[in-house]
Amino acid sequence: MSKSASRARLADIIRARSFGRGEITLASGRKSDFYFNLKPTMLDPEGAALLAELTYEALRDEQVDYVGGLEMGAVPLAGAIAQLSWLKNHPIAAFFVRKKPKEHGAKLSVEGLAKGESLAGKRCVIVEDVTTTGGSAIKAVEAVKESGAEIILVLTMVDREEGATAAFAEAGLPFRSLYKASEFLKT
Fold first, then answer.
1. What is the SS3 assignment for 184?
2. Is the distance from CB of 175 to CB of 154 less than 8 angstroms?
3. Which of 25, 41, 55, 184 has the fewest CB atoms below 10 angstroms from its CB?
4. Alpha carbons 45 and 71: distance in angstroms, whole number
5. What is the 8-class DSSP label of residue 115?
6. Number of other CB atoms surrounding residue 94 within 10 Å
7. CA-CA distance, 185 to 71, in Å (whole number)?
8. Taking Cα atoms as reference points, which of 98, 115, 116, 118 lies closest to residue 107?
9. pLDDT digits (tens, 9 = 90+) for 130-167
10. Interior CA angle at 131 toward 117 and 95, to 5°?
11. Are strands 93-97 and 19-25 parallel, antiparallel or unpaired?
12. Radius of gyration of the chain measured on its C-alpha atoms
């Protein structure tokens, strides 16, 4: 399937499984009359494959060592991208950032690294399912930077177009999205 056909098909899946209208309170605390819940798309076999494919293609030339982000939205994405990157002979490892470190065990905030592995000096991309103001991705960025990584990009599947672009620009972080909310609101 061509990139444009994959993108169109994924938009159809997101529209059917993950986009809705109706009053909702967002993670940022704002009220909205539309929402995206990408979990049904991320956990659908075709949706997961297309998200991984389009994200991998967006990152292929970026010399990425790791991809990950804040739990829960980044976990299925990072895993699917890691798997596809292996199949494409261009491995990109995955991690995720806990909203708060576990209070038992290793008490880690960044998960997915084996004993002795570190993000120090690694080129990382923060992925997110849906971005409104950028606050969740910024939390992941801070945790990953604390680990010594270089953040080369924040990539979201859907940008709600409600402040994230400006927030990332202010933080000096490159930001891209696969889709913009306006693409779904037109129809």
1. helix
2. yes
3. 25
4. 20
5. T
6. 22
7. 27
8. 98
9. 999 898 899 999 999 999 999 999 999 999 999 999 99
10. 10
11. unpaired
12. 16
